[in-house]
Write a structure and sequence with these properties.
The chain is mainly alpha-helical. Helix content is about 40%, strand content about 10%. It is elongated, with a radius of gyration of 17 Å.
């Protein structure tokens, strides 16, 4: 299971959607979905998959934390994480004087 952890408000929404739907259905341009870029049966990259990519040229170039290998939606975890993030931030904001 891939899990996106965010530590700021700007990326929190993206992380909620990635965790809720799974990185295969909602990659948000962050994750590289293995089935679109790499063929496990042949052990080779999908022809033309990396054409126009400015960062990586082969599947082995993609860092492990950007690979979506085992996409799994986690809607309950996504909601709990979002709620706890807001509560912790709210508590922290009101505790500072």
């Amino acid at each position: 299971m891939e899990c996106c952890i965010c530590n700021n408000c700007a990326s929190r929404g993206l992380c909620r959607y990635i965790n809720y739907f799974g990185c295969e259905k909602f990659s948000s341009g962050i994750y590289y979905v293995e089935s679109k870029y790499y063929n496990r049966e042949t052990g080779e990259d999908v022809p033309g998959a990396f054409d126009g990519d400015h960062f990586y040229h082969t599947w082995s170039d993609v860092p492990a934390h950007f690979r979506c290998r085992h996409p799994e939606a986690s809607p309950i975890s996504a909601v709990l994480y979002s709620i706890s993030f807001v509560l912790i931030c709210t508590f922290g904001a009101f505790s500072v004087r």
